[in-house]
Design goal:
Peptidase_aspartic_dom_sf, Retropepsin-like aspartic endopeptidase domain-containing protein, 2 helices, Cathepsin D, subunit A, domain 1, elongated, 11 strands, Asp_endopeptidase
């Protein structure tokens, strides 16, 4: 009996020591799991909004304001260059071209080109010689008569403040009251005609330089 008691005591002591040893041994921690990280913020660049191009205004262009035109009468004084002669002229909106009196027309050659020599009255009973290159001939219709061909030259005409160099056809107008007839090729876009007026623009001034 005594032996059993001693054995029990020894067994209990061994158990106690084993328990104490277990408690004193350091516990090996489990592998630490990384703590979950919050997701990184992603910078999202906002999508560019398509720019709406402004539509160009396709408005009609404003109408051009017509420039102020000089008024001329039914009859006017016109200075012709070369020659520097002032003639009485009839203003005729029904005529397409301008016609001037000329007498003793003579063709001649100069530098391989055809020129024309002719004479115009100066209003004082004299006549002035003019030479111009011959540009050609134009067919002129006449009321109640057959068409005729007239020689054409370039002349500078001055009426009031208007000076133009244009084609002029030549014919003998000595039987007419006016040695010069101004047609639409001089008037168009430049002058308005008031048939109630006569010699409204007066005698045109001489140009500073006269080209012969």
């Amino acid at each position: 009996m005594e032996f059993r008691k001693i054995s029990s005591v020894i067994t209990a002591a061994v158990l106690a020591l084993s328990l104490a040893a277990c408690e004193s041994m350091p516990t090996t921690p489990k592998d630490e799991q990384p703590s979950p990280q919050p997701p990184e913020e992603q910078t999202t660049t906002p999508a560019e909004q398509p720019t709406t191009a402004k539509e160009e205004c396709k408005c009609p262009a404003p109408a051009k304001v017509p420039k102020r035109m000089d008024v001329v009468g039914e009859n006017e004084y016109v200075r012709i260059i070369p020659g520097d002669v002032v003639m009485k002229a009839r203003i005729d909106t029904g005529a397409t071209s301008t016609s001037m009196t000329a007498i003793d027309l003579q063709e001649f050659e100069r530098d391989g080109k055809t020129w024309l020599r002719f004479y115009v009255p100066d209003g004082d009973g004299n006549r002035v010689e003019i030479t111009r290159p011959l540009l050609g001939r134009v067919s002129i219709k006449r009321h109640g008569a057959q068409s005729v061909k007239r020689p054409v030259v370039m002349m500078t005409l001055i009426l009031g403040n208007q000076e133009q160099t244009l084609k002029v056809n030549l014919t003998d107008r000595s039987k007419y009251e006016y040695p010069l007839l101004i047609g639409r090729n001089f008037l168009q876009g430049m002058l308005m005609v008031d048939v109630s007026k006569k010699y409204h623009q007066g005698i045109p001034a001489r140009p500073k330089t006269i080209n012969k």
